[in-house]
């Protein structure tokens, strides 16, 4: 027994294709080659945030022709009321691997304000990795409130829109769409 077929045309909230699967695949391949050159012989540990980064991590991992390891973390944000007016993040799932003395590359789906990446970098830096850098498929630098980020690789700079597909969800649906679509939320 199978569920309903995935047809984004049946959901009026799913708009036009912003980036095609081919465009994404090509750019991820370029990123994989660049990272492989920079990390040759270093056997980096790729660390992705669940859930949205999982699709990007899978494709990036296949695009890297060097030995590397993969691990996952999951973060959740606190509400402002719980932290005296400040937004804070906390770990829901921590790393399984030790990172002391290892080259760690954080794999992000999108970097906006930089607050989450900053929190993650500060937390992981305490564990003494040999190096700590980040790759993000999408970047919104104009939304940045934290400037000192180790964002070394960027796939695309995108506008301030809500997207669905390629790992991004709409009500926990459509992560598996191969293209990145603009979502219409009104």
For the termini, the CA-CA separation is 34 Å
> Major beta sheet, specifics?
6 strands, mixed
Low confidence ranges:
80-84
Mean pLDDT: 90
Mass-distribution shape = globular
Sheet with the most strands: spatial strand order: 4-3-2-5-6-7
- Which structural class do the helices and strands define? alpha/beta
List the helices and strands and how they pair.
Blueprint: E1 14-19, H1 21-38, E2 45-49, H2 53-62, E3 69-77, E4 89-93, E5 103-111, H3 115-125, E6 131-139, E7 151-157, E8 163-164, E9 180-183
Parallel strand pairs: 2-3, 2-5, 5-6, 6-7
Antiparallel strand pairs: 1-9, 3-4, 8-9
Helix pairs in contact: 1-2
Structure characterization notes:
By secondary structure, the chain is α/β, with parallel strands linked by helices. The chain contains three helices and nine strands, in the order E-H-E-H-E-E-E-H-E-E-E-E. The protein has helices at 21-38, 53-62, 115-125, and strands at residues 14-19, 45-49, 69-77, 89-93, 103-111, 131-139, 151-157, 163-164, 180-183. Helix 1 (21-38) packs across helix 2 (53-62). Residues 80-84 have low confidence and may be disordered.
List keywords for this structure.
3 helices; 21% helix; three-stranded antiparallel beta sheet; 9 strands; 186 residues
Short description:
With 186 residues, the chain is α/β, with parallel strands linked by helices.
């Amino acid at each position: 027994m199978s569920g309903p077929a995935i047809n984004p045309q049946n959901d009026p909230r799913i708009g036009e294709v912003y980036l095609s699967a081919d465009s994404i695949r090509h750019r991820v391949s370029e990123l994989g080659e660049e990272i492989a050159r920079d990390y040759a012989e270093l056997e980096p540990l790729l660390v992705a945030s669940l859930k949205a980064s999982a699709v990007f991590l899978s494709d990036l991992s296949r695009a890297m022709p060097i030995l590397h390891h993969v691990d996952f973390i999951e973060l959740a944000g606190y509400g402002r009321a719980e932290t005296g007016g400040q937004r804070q993040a906390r770990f829901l799932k921590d790393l399984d691997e030790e990172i002391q003395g290892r080259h760690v590359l954080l794999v992000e789906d999108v970097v906006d304000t930089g607050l989450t990446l900053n929190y993650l970098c500060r937390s992981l830096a305490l564990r003494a990795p040999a190096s700590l850098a980040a790759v993000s498929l999408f970047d919104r630098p104009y939304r940045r409130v934290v400037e000192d980020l180790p964002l070394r690789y960027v796939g695309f700079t995108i506008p301030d829109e809500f997207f669905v597909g390629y790992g991004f969800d709409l009500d926990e649906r459509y992560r598996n769409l191969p293209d990145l679509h603009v979502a219409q939320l009104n």
